[in-house]
Structures are given as C-alpha cells and as structure tokens.
Amino acid sequence: MSNNWQCPKCDCRDYDTDTIATTGSGWSKIFDMQNRKFTAVICSNCTYTEFYRGKTSTLGNIFDLFTN
C-alpha cells in the first residue's frame, strides 16, 4: 500500500492491512474454491475498509480445491 493513503471518511492516514479470500460463482462456488483474493485496507481510526483485488495463482487455486 502507498504511504500516502488517506481515509475518505475521517482523513486519518494510519491504517492496517489484511488479506481475504472469497469464492466466485459457478464451479468455484460449488466446490467452495476461494479463488478471489483481496487486500483489505482498514482505517485505524474509524475502521472504514476498502478492498483491492489481488492476484491469484492456478497452483494456489488447485491447492485450495483439495484442502477445503
């Protein structure tokens, strides 16, 4: 994340980040494959959260299929 991120709600510049994975639609939903990755940026002051799409790998998606 950029050092110049600023919360659009409270103008705070302090934030935490986390990563989440979600299922898409179709076959990934049926097999509970979490093939969508996002980075969450959470404001340290008001907890406003923005999500940014991340990259996924084919190998990671296959591993997720067999470890659910």
UniProtKB/TrEMBL annotation:
The name this protein goes by in its record: GTP-binding protein
- Organism lineage: Bacteria, Pseudomonadati, Pseudomonadota, Gammaproteobacteria, Alteromonadales
